[in-house]
Amino acid sequence: MFQNRAVFLFIFLFFSILSFAQNDKNAIPLKNILNLITSQHNVRFNYIEDEVVVYAIVSPNKKWSLEQKIKYLEKQTNLQFKLIGQKYYSIYNDKKLDKPLCGFLIDYDTGKPIENALLSIEGTTDTAFTDADGHFKLPKVSSNSIKIQHPSYNSITLNPKELYVVDCPKLKLQSIIQSLDEVITQRYIATGIIKKNDGTIQIKPKKFGILPGLIEPDVLQTMQQVPGIISVDETISNINVRGGTHDQNLFLWNGMRIFQTGHFFGLISAFNPSLSQEITISKNGSSAFFGESVSSLVTISSRSNTIEETHSSLSSNLISAEFFSKIKVSDKANVTVAGRRSLTDFFSSPTYKNYSNRIFQNTVITDLNDNQIINYNNDVDFYFYDVSLQYQQKIGTKNELNIDFLVIENSLDFNQTVSNLSENSKLTQENFGSTFRWKTNWNKNNFTEITAYLSQYDLKSNNKSIENDQVLSQRNKVLDYSLKIKNSNKLSSSFTLNSGYQFNETGVTNFDDINLPIFSRTITNVLLTHAGIVEGIYEPESKKTLINAGLRVNYFDKFNEFVLEPRLQFNQSLTSSIRLEILAEQKSQTLSQIIDLQQDFLGVEKRRWTLANNSTIPIQKSNQFSIGFNFKKNNWLITLDNFYKKITEITTSSQGFQNQFELERTIGNYQVFGTEFLIQKSFNRFYTWLSYSFNDNKYDFNQLTNSNFPNNFEVTHAISWAGIYEWNKVKFALGAKWHTGRPITTPIAFTVTETEPNIVYNSPNNSKLEDYFQVNFSASKKWNLNDTMKLETAVSVLNLLNTKNSINRFYRVNSANNSVESVDTFSLEMTPNFNIKLNF
């Protein structure tokens, strides 16, 4: 019975929609309908031409009575029909509508007026342009559609009834992100994400639609939806791009290097989503103007190209609250201030408790015997915050100044209590920085840009053991200065030559101090780097070809060594639907993260930054090449990339071994062969995509036994799927992730030597964890409260099916019963979250 009703309902809805679509096409001018009724019923209508000319509706049924037809017309037009005598009707409207068709055009994102937009009434010669306030007026001449056009905005078509209202309505236009010929697709994975011809992925948070499991456009969570990018432990402080480690990715905020990318020690992005204007992700073939990463490049810009009007926002979810305000201090200056702080030390939401259970597993903060959080509500005090301040100034018509400040901090304070004994331990993590940029546009074909920044990272811990009064103090500090100069010359309509210079001074300090037994060490290294850059870009007006070839020449002062880094981006249109993409690069990296002991820094942030010394820690170098195809037609998008990547001069301490190689210190490399595939289909309001990634990722450490074995971060197969529905201001997203488990090393036996028990392991990474599977859901809704205020709400559920996934496993000796036991780290449990945001 239920199935029959469902079928009947589907058929009814289908034909209703079909009928509606057909009826809408049969609309005719109201004036013609009045003439038909006049001949059918021998009546007369008196009306003012301007009051009926804008209406076009479906003609009423001929079989209806005159009274039925009059009621139908009143309902469709809101006009009043008054009977005067037996055969005469007077038609009139609201006197407030006695005005031209008028309105205001404003930018959808900034709210600024749009000047010089062209409005034309189709089928006539009547046109109008908007003035400096975005205002326009049109005569009421017909019921024909009104077309609105502007070179920088998407065109729209209006029914004149939309303007035939009280007052002059405000109409919002969406700006054109890029010319359609310059991008492969305007919607890649989600609205607000595009794939460009240079191989980069670009995210516009203000235009962002929705993705499964997200309540706001978190940049580091969003990039994990891209094929080839994954986090094997679910954290954004361990993002693996094509099999690389997290420290091999370069993260830049307004040109400044960021060393701390996560809050909550890796579960939340450290970048305020209300602040970002544009995010660009490059997996390969990055510009020669960027160095210091042998894997991916992520640039985050919170700067706007124009001086925007004052606007602000307030928002909160079950973890944190944030604010944002951009203030127009003059016609040529903006000040932006934004901040976010956790609510974790005020109340413990279910979301916070689940995050805590996930991140503090198998750390000093947990009791490793039963892997349970110790009295978390009473003994642990945790919070995080980030604050940014920006100043933007236009100077004359050619110059622009930007000054930015950013502070990111995590703080953890916890007490251990046994009987009458109590000890306090602390962990703080901070990234502070400031950037300066001066840009001069000499003319339309030439500009010079000078960028300087200071970035300081500081990780400190003080661990007091309650069992033996031992106190371990540790510190990892990075201080990075940079100056970059870029000059761009457009030599012709097809060719641009960029050149530049970059200087970096990087200092790293590592400190360890123990009271029992007494031990203290401080190691400080400083490295100066000079880089010369040249880059040529060929792109004809047809946009069918793009060639970007660059060379970066690094000179490392301390080692008296030159390193050449060629780069290539090549994109060619083969047909109107298919494009060929070839990307290649050589890169180097002097700053990396290592792990001395798994329980350093309370076991929470155990990685410490260290500089290359050209001996035990050499300069890492990479070679990468990829070839791919992009197909787009009839709302289908298919992308395919095949790549080879080799990273040399890596150390075992940078790879996080928890097997027989945990304490080994040697140098090697890894190489990856891989394939990435995405298929996406749009059906108007609904679209869906499916991605697949394959990685064959192998180590080669000559000094180790079994020198060739799977990489710790190898995920051989990974599949993601999402179905997304967007209608006006309502959005829904449901998605799933599946991938094979990460490699682990299993034990063979347990032995007891004269000194201590020992685990005998199999060959390295001989086995894998169970497959990972997760389903996520999100929904959002927007409301326009008035002309200036908007309310946004969003809800998400991570791990909707509450699947228990093991994301890491290591083995240890249980001295109580002389046995080997496994210790698992499990994924986040089913975790809901809710966000509410007020824009004004």
Output mean pLDDT.
88
Q: Could you tell me how far the N terminus lies from the C terminus, measured between alpha carbons in angstroms?
A: 51 Å
Which radius of gyration do the C-alpha atoms yield? 32 Å
Largest sheet: 22 strands, antiparallel, barrel
Low-confidence stretches: 1-25, 367-378
What overall geometry do the principal axes of the alpha carbons give?
elongated
Strand content: over 45%
Structural class category: mainly beta
Helix count equals 7
List the helices and strands and how they pair.
Layout: H1 2-25, E1 28-29, H2 30-41, E2 44-46, H3 49-52, E3 56-57, H4 66-77, E4 80-84, E5 88-92, E6 101-107, E7 118-121, E8 127-129, E9 135-138, E10 146-150, E11 153-158, E12 170-173, E13 183-185, E14 193-196, E15 201-203, H5 219-222, E16 229-230, E17 240-241, E18 250-253, E19 256-257, E20 262-263, E21 268-269, E22 278-282, E23 297-301, E24 311-317, E25 320-330, E26 333-342, H6 350-359, E27 366-367, E28 372-373, H7 376-379, E29 380-395, E30 399-418, E31 421-443, E32 446-464, E33 471-490, E34 495-514, E35 519-538, E36 545-556, E37 561-573, E38 578-589, E39 591-594, E40 608-611, E41 620-633, E42 636-651, E43 667-683, E44 686-700, E45 708-710, E46 717-727, E47 730-739, E48 743-744, E49 747-752, E50 757-761, E51 767-768, E52 772-784, E53 790-798, E54 806-814, E55 819-826, E56 831-839
Parallel strand pairs: 2-5, 6-12, 18-23
Antiparallel strand pairs: 1-3, 4-5, 6-9, 7-8, 7-10, 10-11, 13-14, 14-15, 15-22, 16-17, 18-19, 20-21, 22-23, 24-25, 24-56, 25-26, 26-29, 27-28, 29-30, 30-31, 31-32, 32-33, 33-34, 34-35, 35-36, 36-37, 37-38, 38-41, 39-40, 41-42, 42-43, 43-44, 44-45, 44-46, 46-47, 47-52, 48-51, 49-50, 52-53, 53-56, ...
